[in-house]
């Protein structure tokens, strides 16, 4: 590990406004949406409108907002790579750290660490805000699945960031990377999950598989229930495989890059 | 010390660099001179490991650049001015550079002062002019106190004051033992800054000489003479063995002669001269001639120069 290169990448992240904004958005979105979703679920439960399914689980509701917060980290992963290509700064970055493997691994480590550092408070704040919104229906951290779901949500966000850094490096352009990632996360995976012919395959997509890491019981508050779902460990393994694959693809593309 | 040996780089069917070799020793400013597209930037990028050559070697300090663990402490680089992210401030830009090579961040302010940007340390690069970005690039190049400097078109975008400043700056560094390699497409600028010039055109080295020798060898002093009897004068001069060509103004340019000899010759043949001036060779013209550009002497001369060997390298 080239520690100097990691320090340099961390410094780049701190001084890149779009990256800082994305991380701040993750936190604000988690806390804000958590409170709103907890409050609206509480009202539905209190009024007995039947909108909330029988499988209501306060832990599940508490981590479900991760599915929205992830978009901030997708942008984060893409811009910390992409801004170097669009500005031409990549040339100078590679003269400062000419070993491409060292440069790239430093970016993955610094990006992943920044995502982790913000994901932990965001997931916790989102969970607490949701429980606060749920009021009497809410719970604390001592539910049997709470710790696993919270850790799963954090791991999901970090792995998703790594996946996006890989995709961004492979495509060398933030526009191209977002053009691939946004449709994939916004509708392609949901669409494939709901179509009968593709559902068996859709559960292995990075988001659908990763979601299993923080899914609790049968409560699938915000997500469509897949048939024969993956276990949390399986889902995590599949997302980790996607992240490693994208990171490797990014490395192969970076190694061939001529400027 | 920079050493380049037999470098070849092809892009598809186009050959950008075709067997380039030269060296840039410590304590001198070496100019890498050539028109746009001659292969200068490709050569610099190969030296920095940004582009892989198809053949040949490029070494800095005796090693390939990509094998250096802390390259900024050995080689300072100035690439095109758009190698900066404009959302960062000058200081923030130098900070990530410094950290990548374990250079103490305290040095940043000193370097900004050195290039005249101390007051803009906290200004975003998006507000910088091209000249200021060049200065910032130079501050980045100097960050690690390198003993080798590689500057690609450093005077691009600088105003007259900036050009003079850059020139004396580079001379100072060389005087203190730095090996400076400056690429440029501007002959006069290189002639004023460099001790040694490597001329490159179409990917090949066309000349590799000390600057003084380059000037004396490739710029031919000439005499410009005008007369009403131009044809007869031309014939007389040619009979006497001089290379003559029609100058754009309608007079005659006579290479390799002095005003006295031409005056005497004209008097002998009773030709009245209307003008007789000694002209020193133009550097730019010599350079265009050397690289074979259409702006060179041949394009507007009636006859090619034969006597002085200027065409031999074509």
TrEMBL record, chain A:
TM annotation in the entry: 58-81, 102-129, 149-168, 175-195, 236-254
Origin superkingdom: Bacteria
Entry keywords, A to Z: Membrane, Transmembrane, Transmembrane helix
Protein name from the UniProt record: ABC transporter permease subunit
Source organism of this protein record: Streptomonospora wellingtoniae
Highest classification ranks of the organism: Bacteria, Bacillati, Actinomycetota, Actinomycetes, Streptosporangiales
Automatic annotation (TrEMBL), chain B:
Pfam families (alphabetical): ABC_tran
Residue span, ABC transporter domain: 2-227
Keyword line: ATP-binding, Nucleotide-binding, Transport
Keyword Transport: yes
Region feature Disordered, mapped onto this chain: 293-314
GO molecular function: ATP binding
Gene3D superfamilies documented for this protein: P-loop containing nucleotide triphosphate hydrolases (3.40.50.300)
Entry keyword Transcription: no
PANTHER family, sorted: ABC TRANSPORTER, ATP-BINDING PROTEIN
The name this protein goes by in its record: ATP-binding cassette domain-containing protein
Lineage of origin: Bacteria, Bacillati, Actinomycetota, Actinomycetes, Streptosporangiales
